[in-house]
């Protein structure tokens, strides 16, 4: 015997509690009021390894189209046979997110050699506006003469369970004997 009430727009629902001061303070504390544009802005991808020389940092600003384009011609050099972590830095803009994951597919000479999928977790907008950083599980870079010949192309994306893509970019790396 359930009878749904009349349909209302989001604006009409927002007006229903406009005079509830306590509820409005609580909503403001969540950092989710208003806002347009993407829920998530991915700022950079980085690689960290205990074997990296002191002071060396490998980071890609994914919002810099010129830098991404340059990576196709001048790939990142990763030392063969070392353990490293991939990580991303991102901001949650105006909504609470859940079910968001980072996926990358690695190809060499057009053949898929690896696929990694990592959960970001659940986040709300940072109260201070600072970006979040997520380090993923460690991986080991391939090694050997065959692994060193040629470069690897990586297609990365940040996507949620509903299929909404927040960022998508491509980068290239090459294995070497030294960082």
Automatic annotation (TrEMBL):
One of its GO terms (molecular function) is GTPase activator activity. Residues 122-144 are annotated as: Disordered. One of its GO terms (cellular component) is membrane. InterPro entries: Ig_E-set, Rho_GDI, RhoGDI_dom_sf. Keywords: Cytoplasm, GTPase activation. One of its GO terms (biological process) is Rho protein signal transduction. Its main location: cytoplasm. It is found in: Cytoplasm. Belongs to the Rho GDI family. PANTHER family: LD16419P (PTHR10980:SF3), RHO GDP-DISSOCIATION INHIBITOR (PTHR10980). This is E set domain-containing protein. It comes from Sistotremastrum suecicum HHB10207 ss-3.
């Amino acid at each position: 015997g359930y009878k749904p009430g009349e349909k209302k727009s989001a604006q009409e629902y927002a007006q229903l509690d406009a005079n509830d001061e306590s509820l409005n303070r609580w909503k403001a504390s969540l950092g989710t009021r208003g806002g347009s544009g993407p829920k998530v802005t991915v700022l950079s991808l980085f690689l960290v390894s205990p074997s990296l020389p002191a002071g060396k940092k490998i980071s890609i600003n994914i919002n810099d189209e010129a830098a991404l384009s340059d990576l196709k011609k001048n790939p990142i050099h990763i030392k063969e046979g070392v353990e490293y972590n991939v990580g991303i830095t991102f901001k949650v803009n105006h909504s609470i997110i859940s079910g968001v994951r980072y996926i990358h597919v690695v190809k060499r000479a057009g053949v898929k050699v690896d696929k990694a999928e990592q959960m970001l977790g659940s986040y709300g907008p940072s109260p201070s506006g600072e970006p979040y950083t997520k380090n993923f599980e460690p991986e080991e870079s391939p090694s050997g003469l065959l692994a060193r010949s040629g470069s690897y192309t990586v297609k990365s994306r940040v996507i949620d369970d509903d299929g909404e893509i927040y960022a998508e970019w491509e980068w290239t790396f090459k294995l070497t004997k030294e960082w």
